[in-house]
């Protein structure tokens, strides 16, 4: 459903996902191309009507948050990205990410190695982990 959102709604939704929770002013301040408070509020209400955003009373007014866990939304977005730009190949996407030049910490490298080991399909005759 996120793919079908108009550009500004998607931008507000993605910003809220990044923040995890926030008031209208928080979302507005985090936007790359800020809108007025009333425009952000209108977009958040639209997202709420679509079931993507929930609101609750906060200490300083209404607080918004994604209706689904941010991790769930991120996994869906990543799957669409892999399908669209990497023909469904997680390995190609991972190679592209690693090719961006950002260095990994030893802990990150070890975690990736462990995940790769779990994801590898064993050849016939090899032990399954």
TrEMBL record:
Keyword field contains Lipid biosynthesis: no
Record key words, sorted: DNA-binding, Transcription, Transcription regulation
Recorded superkingdom: Bacteria
Alphabetical list of InterPro entries matching this protein: BlaI_family, WH-like_DNA-bd_sf, WH_DNA-bd_sf
Chain segments annotated as coiled-coil in the UniProt record: none
Gene3D superfamilies in the record: Winged helix-like DNA-binding domain superfamily/Winged helix DNA-binding domain
Membrane spanning stretches: none
Family that this chain belongs to: Belongs to the BlaI transcriptional regulatory family.
Protein name: CopY family transcriptional regulator
Source species of the chain: Caulobacter segnis
């Amino acid at each position: 459903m996120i793919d079908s959102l108009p550009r500004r709604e998607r931008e507000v939704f993605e910003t809220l996902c990044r923040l995890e929770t926030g008031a209208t002013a928080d979302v507005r301040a985090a936007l790359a191309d800020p809108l007025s408070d009333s425009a952000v509020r209108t977009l958040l209400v639209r997202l709420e009507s679509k079931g993507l955003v929930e609101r609750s009373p906060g200490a300083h007014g209404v607080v918004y948050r994604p209706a689904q866990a941010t991790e769930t939304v991120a996994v869906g977005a990543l799957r669409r990205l892999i399908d669209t730009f990497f023909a469904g190949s997680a390995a190609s996407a991972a190679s592209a990410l690693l090719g961006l030049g950002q260095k990994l910490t030893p802990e990150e490298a070890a975690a990736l190695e462990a995940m790769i080991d779990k994801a590898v399909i064993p050849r016939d005759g090899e032990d399954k982990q």
